[in-house]
Design a protein that fits this description.
The structure is a homotetramer. Chain A is built from eleven helices and 19 strands. By secondary structure, chain A is an alpha+beta fold. Chain A has a seven-stranded antiparallel β-sheet, covered by helices on one side. Chain A has a six-stranded antiparallel β-sheet with strand order 5-6-7-8-12-13, with helices on one face. Chain A has a two-stranded antiparallel sheet with strand order 14-15. In chain A, strand 5 (100-104) and strand 6 (107-117) form a beta hairpin. In chain A, helix 1 runs antiparallel to helix 7 and helix 4 (120-129) packs across helix 5. The interface between C and D is large, with 57 and 57 residues.
Chain lengths: 348, 348, 348, 348
């Protein structure tokens, strides 16, 4: 499980198109809090109001960053996107926080990316060969450069052309011109859903964000699909023929919140079913089924239901344990580990 | 449940006697993180090293306050006590954070208090009549004044005399002279346990703090008991005859962590049994038993076990939802509520 | 000069009586910024509004502490006092910041003290003997205890009685009941002046604070005088017969701002005259008179005027050099010293 | 004078080449504190150690940003550059702080720029036309793009080629490969000096930075000169024929510190001479010459010397007045102005 902590392509994105709504920054903030489980390292949002782009991004949790004062400075917005980034070990800088906002020949563009490109280094080399400079180590900067170099084709073609170059996992929300754009990679590795509000549309990594923004779920963005949302409504482009659903199984098992629906399946139900199947295929004799919290709870309940072995609590997680203490010696390190997840010894 | 949020007498205390241990401030910190669920408003610790008292207290969570730098300044300590305070609505100031450290005729004294005195105002009036001044609104200041006015009796008698004057709930950890002192009110309303480390002793509101400090549970401090821990070991005084156990039921139902043991009973088991009894006495026809997280989970499991109705998850809590957003209008307020605790609609 | 940095009795106080003014906290803030040269360690203010006392104090500079948000929380006030404290080497805690606000039998009292009592330890012992406890190491706490123990005499007599007990330097601003009180020790060691605004009165350590609060200078508080300001105007009590002016010469030489007037003399003029007298009594042959900034400038100008030797700049102070860097080795320490005050080599 | 506050091209730069020195980040910090008067909005530094680039930049004063902890993270460095940026009204973001650090085909490059390009917008358009994206609004990003697009010529030619494209004022310190590079525009509008330490070289906007870094002044970088400092020593290239000294007069009058020497003239002496010339050309009858602090002091002294009218202090600046308070009404605004610079009324 600790290995999973090091996966770098785990993030959450959100996008809102709502020209007549005064509470854009507040709604983006709600959406990001709902997606906070997908990334606790940094958060940011970019808003377009009357053609002008404002943005703010910082290290930390959404509610720490977007104080009343910061939200005040971000007031107003017709289109907005937001991003939460996963806390990875090693170097993490605010310069790697998203959304990335750049100026290019076509105007301003803001990008928020959840995923991981497998050919990013190759594309960086190629772009540097053509004279590009890079200020961050995030893939969004590669994508922005590709779009900028294709600007003459118009933004739609420039984005599609860029998507054809990149390989790997990506769910993107983009502000470009007066459009909110959502893109999902041809394999549908990272999730992206669309919802509808009274005056507009919402894109988000998970359905849990729709609820708190005040949007109703419409549908998943399909693998290999780009949606363009503007004053004319929603326009869909399939930029890849060979889309085949290859969802990342960690989304269902570990990343996503249990109350989210993804590509037609509820996460909690999927986990519970996995537990049931496990019980059928690998029955054991035991007094009790206990879960490793939090992501293992649904599977444990499923295993208990199928096997008839009672479900109980055996491991307690300290929900106030933010960062791990760095300890000088082994005995203190062992105590520190007990702080986070504690085995709960009990007489039955 | 929201009313409970306003209970003001909920706190956590810890105390360590360990003259030869170099990691006093770190262990206090671990203990306080383990007790963080008992209070998130402020935290503090006081340490005695070679007869000199140092302390630090601040608003916020334990890990936010006790950074590497702050812990560095608190290095060294023979005896230490710590406190976490509950976040109450209304006014909350750092001046009300604990431990309270004062100088009096007998030297220095540090106090950490979990509880609520019912005759505090009367005692304040009486003390003010005698010329005392008050700088905080916490009961600890009343107790410190009482001890100071009885100093001529010696510290033991001074504390006992003071305990005879105060009425209500109190679990105290005190540094006085070269002694670590633990006191529990005659009704045993607030919990206090004692543990043993290699080189000393630990006092704490709950057994979960013992584990992470590296101490083994010895016993509960009895209602009406004062323990004095120093180089001669542990000395016990029963300062009240008519002790009768009148534990606060909220400790078992709501305040304490499920993996704590209190006065001979495990909190999780107590909650599960409550659920079982409820199922016997109040059977209902239902498809599923769901819990209000987090404190209701054990009872729901108990109800499910007894009734045979399957247990499942139906409400999801956002664990990253720190403070509640203050919202200007009703529609945004409604969305904000959904952020904290969300009903999880699902097709069975 | 570096020894002077360690003088601990250097502070600034201010007090405003203005029941109909809405900008109390803002004016206190202005006054404290004008007195910031008297103390950069901590600052605080206490305000009485409709009989209720609010206060805020913190480590740091006035403008860092009293942000827009903090001033907002302190809105409203009929009477207010403020304090800036000098940065001393060694331990400095927010618990030693002023004003000190306490409850006693007579109600609430807030005190701000500039000075240093010579019999503070003796009085502490005496008060502890009577059962008092102390939470800080500031003299204000001694004074508050004395007033509280004399409360039955009424506030005027209680304060006078307390002043008769304390020895040393003190300029005090006090809120007690609906009164703003100013007190100056019988020797007039620390300065205190009174000014008038449209709707009230102002007390301050130096006249420079009157200007920015919008008050006109009326007069100095006399040595051994207590003034009580309330809805009936200003009432004066001389609580000491043998007052003789024994101003601290460091006020004129070092502490005060050159544009302040103190006890009938302007600080700049006094310094210039000192320079002139020095030139008469100790003439030297030299090419140029240079000053050690900032306090030595006026004296150097006076010396130049009297001697006929031209005045010039020879030492430059880095005004952005806040704290001194702590340097690991000698060569770096020497460079760090040059940062603060640099000898300015020049070809004439 | 308030208009001057809005000049955007005022900054300070520093560069150190010292492969065997362990205190690189500390020396950069000293140099930036000495140049703090050239910019108080943001500060930053970039260090190259064993071919790897580290950097840190933030809003605020040098000493606030470069805490012990931050300097610790920047430990080690063979080559380093630093930058302080002026506080301009209007929008100021950390993304505009310098040095700018980018990756390009040739590796890593770090740039710190003092000045203002007059053809920046034209160059941005041209670069965007070629597919470049921009993430900041600083000229350094234009320069970095130009260098990147010329990378195939080798770094020297690439920089020279880039300098030939840009027009306006620039004093640059650059880390590129294992070289520290200093460049000054053909008109020499912004200052840049070179000094020598025991083990290396230093570049800085003003000589006052050399002193505190522990370097001895060698010479000014000439207008139109590029110096390349590396293990082989100092190499000089004149990249412009028609260099003519067109120093910005504000450097002497307002920006620079009086104890700096620039292009052969001392700033204090220059200001004093200006005052003398003014006295000759524009004699007046007056009782006293007073200066507008701080930049006007030397000129006032010169005027006094030449005219025989005595020099005195008439305006006092509050050195603790950081930001200007934003005041709700006119009367409070007027008081706030008095806080910053106060006319000093005195009876002669």
């Amino acid at each position: 499980m600790f290995e999973l902590d090091k996966l770098k392509d785990e993030c959450g994105v959100v996008g809102i198109y709502a020209p007549k709504d005064d509470s854009m920054s507040q709604r983006l903030c709600f959406g990001l809090v709902a997606l906070q489980h997908r990334g606790q390292e940094s958060a940011g949002m970019a808003l377009l109001k009357d053609g002008k782009m404002k943005y703010y991004k910082e290290m930390g949790l959404v509610q720490e960053i977007f104080t009343k004062e910061v939200l005040g400075r971000l007031e107003g917005g017709d289109i907005g996107i937001g991003h939460v980034r996963y806390s990875t070990t090693g170097e993490s800088y605010v310069s790697n926080a998203q959304p990335l906002v750049v100026n290019y020949k076509g105007g301003s563009i803001a990008l928020a990316h959840n995923g991981n490109l497998v050919n990013a280094n190759m594309l960086r080399d190629e772009l540097e060969e053509q004279g590009s400079i890079f200020q961050t180590s995030i893939d969004s900067e590669v994508i922005a450069n590709l779009i900028a170099r294709n600007y003459s084709l118009g933004f739609k073609e420039a984005i599609i052309k860029s998507m054809e170059r990149i390989r790997g996992a990506y769910a993107l929300t983009i502000i470009c011109g007066d459009n909110l754009i959502g893109v999902r990679d041809p394999n549908g590795i990272r999730p992206l859903v669309m919802g509808k509000t009274e005056g507009g549309y919402v894109l988000a990594s998970e359905t849990v964000a729709l609820d708190v923004i005040g949007a109703e779920f419409i549908r998943d963005i399909a693998p290999g699909e780009m949606v363009i949302i503007n004053k004319d409504g929603v326009e869909s482009h399939m930029f890849s023929d060979n889309q085949r659903c290859a969802h990342c199984s960690f989304e269902y098992v570990y990343f996503a919140r249990p109350d989210s629906d993804m590509d037609g399946a509820n996460v909690y139900m999927t986990r519970r079913n996995a537990g049931r199947i496990l019980a059928k295929n690998h029955p054991v004799e035991a007094d009790m089924v206990i879960a490793v919290p939090d992501s293992g709870i649904a599977a444990a309940i499923g295993y208990a239901e199928e096997s008839g072995i009672p479900y109980g609590v055996g491991l307690i997680k300290n929900k106030y344990m933010g960062r791990t203490f760095i300890q000088p010696d082994q005995s203190m390190r062992e105590l520190a580990v007990r702080l986070k997840l504690k085995c709960f010894k009990r007489k039955h």
